[in-house]
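Summary for the funding panel

The consortium committed to producing paired sequence-structure records for every protein in the target list. Below we show the first two records in order, beginning with the earlier of the two.
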Amino acid sequence: MSRIPTAGAVAAQGASSGHTALALAPLVREVIGLDLTPAMAMPFAQAAHERGLGNVRFLVGDAESLPFPEEEFHLVTTRRAAHHFPHLPRALAEMARVLRPGGRLGIADMVAPENPEAAHLFNALEATRDNSHVRAYTVEE
């Protein structure tokens, strides 16, 4: 975290209730949490208020069509959300588009097993557990 510019702007894709966005907020000028689910706005705002964070805001939006200009952010993150994106390459291209030159993209997500049968079972179980699950990728992918 010491490499995050303190004057920088951060976008957290798939922000949910703000775990990553709110953890980064004390380190940067501004954090925008973006999530496709409008119901996440209230828990996000409540958690920000409880922590006394005034430099965060929540937007409803799609990671595959980000509502930001090019080269807007020093850091873009997505944590435990990429497996929900229907078109992951499109979402990654959008994240790259809004990063400033030299900016960083941080991704943390579940990983499917390399064995195709195990990966199929893994994804089927995840889809049963969470109907918004699209696909977890293998490390090789």
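The next record, for a separate protein in the list, is shown here:
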Amino acid sequence: MVLLRRVIGDALRARRQGQHRTLREVSSAANVSLGYLSEIERGQKEPSSELLAAICDALGARLSELLREVSDTVALAEQMPGVLVPVQDEPVDAAPVAVRRSAGRGVHQVSSDGKVAVQVRQDSPLKATLRSSRVRGSERDVVCAA
């Protein structure tokens, strides 16, 4: 199952690390404790809308951009078989995507039209880790979610 707080946390962490900034720098700029920001990034705490806006401001990002990225990631997860339900031993042919089973249990490589590549790891019946990357022209947009 994809938890919204984990997707939000992963999106925030990806933005922070993309700017080569530390938790301390961002927590100071957002006026939030370092430990709490760390818990948000790890998906252990769900931030309020006010706190999320402050963190986005500290990262120089628009709240709408972050929420759109999170929404796109969740939408991808909803379209892929085996992400929001427990992974079965056989791939499910519910979506028009190519599914390649990896040697590790619960790991799938899913891709569609060449513009989107998604790797899904089923950690447990209720937890899946999703990593997707989209190509836009010459730049590559990597979105991590869980």
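Regarding this second record: Residues 40 and 47 are 7 Å apart (CA to CA). DSSP finds five helices and five strands in the chain.
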